[in-house]
Amino acid sequence: MNHATSPRPTSPESAGLTHYKMYIGGEWVDAADGGVIETTNPYTGKAWATVPRGRAADAERAVAAARKAFETGPWPAMSATNRGHLLRKLADLILENAEHLARVEVIDNGKLINEMLGQVRYIPQWYYYFAGLADKLQGEVIPIDKPDMFNFTRREPLGVCVAITAWNSPLLLAAYKLAPGLAAGNTFILKPSEFTSASAIEFGKLVEKAGFPAGVVNVVTGFGPEIGEPLVAHPSVAKIAFTGSEAGGQRVYETAARGLKRVTLELGGKSPNIVFDDAELDNAVKGVISGIFAATGQTCVAGSRLLVQRSIYDRFVGRVVDFAKAARMGNPLETTTQVGPITTPPQYKKVLDYIEIAKAEGAQCLLGGGPATRPECGSGGQFVEPTIFGQVNNKMRIAREEVFGPVLACIPFEDEEDAIAIANDSPYALAAGVWTQSVRRALLMSQRLQAGTVWVNTYRAVSYMSPFGGHKRSGVGHENGMDAILEYTQVKSVWMSTAREVPDPFVMR
User: Fold this and answer.
1) What is d(CA 122, CA 463) in angstroms, rounded to the nearest whole number?
2) Distance (Å, rounded) from C-alpha 434 to C-alpha 307?
3) Residue 266 annotated in active site
4) Dihedral, CA atoms, 227, 232, 233, 234, nearest 10 degrees?
5) Which three-class secondary structure string do you get for 167-233?
6) Would you place residue 228 in the very low, low, confident or very high pLDDT band (cuts 50, 70, 90)?
7) CB of 263 within 8 A of CB of 252?
8) Which residues carry out catalysis (predicted)?
9) How confident is the model at residue 5, as a pLDDT?
C-alpha cells in the first residue's frame, strides 16, 4: 500500500494501449475523476494498458453497490444451492477462457506462461469446491440445560467483504477469497495490485457473463492509499482478506482494527528448505530449484533459505549451482522459458539492493549476483540472474528478510536439533520444506517446525482442499479447505421458549 513504489499515473489519451474500466454495481465505469494508471509489461519494460485510478469516491460507490446487493434484490433471496449454481457457471467460464486469462497475467506480471496457464486451469476447482459447500453450512441444535427452551444456531454471511490481492498471482489469490466468501452469501469488492489489475478486470467480465446480480462482485483499481485504505476503513465493510507485503498487511490490520473488522492476512515468508544427508538428492535439487527459482522467487512461500546438512553441504550446493546455471531466461510467453523478469521496477531495485547487502555482509556469491544481460532477456526488461549465496549465517539480513526474488541463501546445519533451531529462528512462519527418506524424521520435523505449511519431499504444492496460511509475522487466519468458508460466516444463537407462561421478568432465565 506504499504509493511511492507504485506505477505512474498517466493521461487517458495514451495511444496504442488497452483501456480498462472498473466494474461497480454491474456497470463498467471510469474513475470518478477520470484518472488512469499505466500498467507495464515487465518483459519489455513498456506500457501496454491503462486501468482507472480509483479514489475514495470510487470506493464509496463500490461499497454502496456491494451493500445494496447484500441487503436487497436477488442475492439475499437466492437459495444457497442456487448460489452454488452461479459459482459453477463462473468456474466453467474461467476454464473456457483460461488461455486468454493466462496470457493477460503473463503480459501484466511477467510470470511464465506454463505456470500461469496451469494456475488458471486449476482455479475453477476453487469455485467448484466451494459451490458444493454453499448449501452445506449447517447450524446446530443444542441440548440446552434450560427447561422449556429450544436453542439452535444459524451460520450467516458477514456482509460486504474486501479482497486485496498481490501482483504475483492475481486470479489465484482472488479465488482463495471470493470462492468461499461468495459461497457463504457475502458480497465483494476486489481490489487487485495497481501493478497487475488487468486480469481482475477480465475476471469481472466473466462474473457479469455468469449472471451474478449487480453489486455482488465489484472490481476496483488504483493505488493502495487512494482507494485501498478507504475500502478497509469504510464502516459498511465487514471483513478484509489481504495478500501482500508485511508492511501492507500491518497497515490493513491497523486500519481494520479501528472498525473492529474481521481480517485474513497472508503476508511474507523466509521459508527454510531443509535437506538431510539421507535425502534422495536428485529430487532434493529439483525441490530447491522449484522453491526459489520457479516464479522467479516471487512467491510468499519461496524456499529462500536452503539448510543443508554439513556432511553433504559442499557437494549438494554445488549440484544446485550447476542446475541453476542451466536455467533458461527470456520471454515469459515462450514455453521454453524457465526464469522470467521481476514484475515491478521497485521490486527489481529491491532484489538488486539485497544482493549488494549480502555481498557486504560477507556472503559468498556462488552464482549470479546482478542484473541479467543475456540477449534473450531483451533490452527493456527487469531480469535478475539466478543468484546463490554460500557462507551465510542465519543472522545476516539475506537470511532474515524477505527478498522476493531469485536469491538463495545457503546455510549448513549439523543435525536435526540444529536444523530446527535455525529454521525457527525467523520472524516468519509461512512454510518449510524437508527432504529425507526417514519417516521418523519427517514426522518429527513436521511437528516441530514453526510453519503454516510443511512439505516433505516436495515443495510449492497447494490445493483448494488444504488450509493455507502463516504464523508469526507471516499472517493471520487461513484460506482454502473446508474451514475457509467458516471464516466468511458469523454464528447466531436462536432461543425459543416453549413455556406456557413467562416466569418472573426480573430474574435471568
Assistant:
1) 9
2) 9
3) yes
4) 80
5) CCCHHHHHHHHHHHHHHCCCEEEEECCCCCCHHHHHHHHHHHHHCCCCCCEEECCCCHHHHHHHHHH
6) very high
7) yes
8) 266
9) 44
pLDDT > 60? residue 3: no
Of the candidates 202, 266, 479, 487, the residue annotated as catalytic is: 266
Assigned CATH topology for domain 13-267+474-492:
Aldehyde Dehydrogenase; Chain A, domain 1 (3.40.605)
Question: For residue 508, what pLDDT is reported?
Answer: 86
State how far the Cα of 128 lies from the Cα of 465, in Å rounded to an integer.
11
Say which residue the cell 542446475 belongs to. 323
Domain definitions of the chain by residue range: 13-267+474-492, 272-456
In the sheet that holds 387-390, the strands lie side by side as 364-367, 387-390, 407-413, 305-309, 272-275, 431-435, 453-456
* Arithmetic mean of pLDDT, 255-268: 97
d(CA 196, CA 303): 24
DSSP string spanning 408-477? EEEEEE-SHHHHHHHHHSSSEESEEEEE-S-HHHHHHHHHHS--SEEEES--S---TTS-B--EETTEES
pLDDT digits (tens, 9 = 90+) for 314-346: 999 999 999 999 999 999 999 999 999 999 999
Q: Residue 4: what pLDDT?
A: 39
Q: Which CATH superfamily is domain 272-456 in?
A: Aldehyde Dehydrogenase; Chain A, domain 2 (3.40.309.10)
484: closest CA among 212, 140, 204, 127?
Answer: 127
Q: From CA 208, how far away is CA 90, in angstroms rounded?
A: 9
Q: What is the model's pLDDT at position 12?
A: 39
How far is residue 474's CA from residue 471's CA, in Å, rounded to a whole number? 5
Mean pLDDT, rounded, for 28-43: 96
Q: Tell me if 503 sits within 8 A of 509, measured CB to CB.
A: yes
Produce one character per residue of 75-94: b if its CB has 16 or more CB atoms within 10 Å, e if not: beebeeeebbebbbbbbebb
**What's the rounded Cα separation, in Å, for the pair 358 and 79?**
57
Q: What is the pLDDT of residues 44-98, one digit of tens each?
A: 999 999 999 999 999 999 999 999 999 999 999 999 999 999 999 999 999 999 9
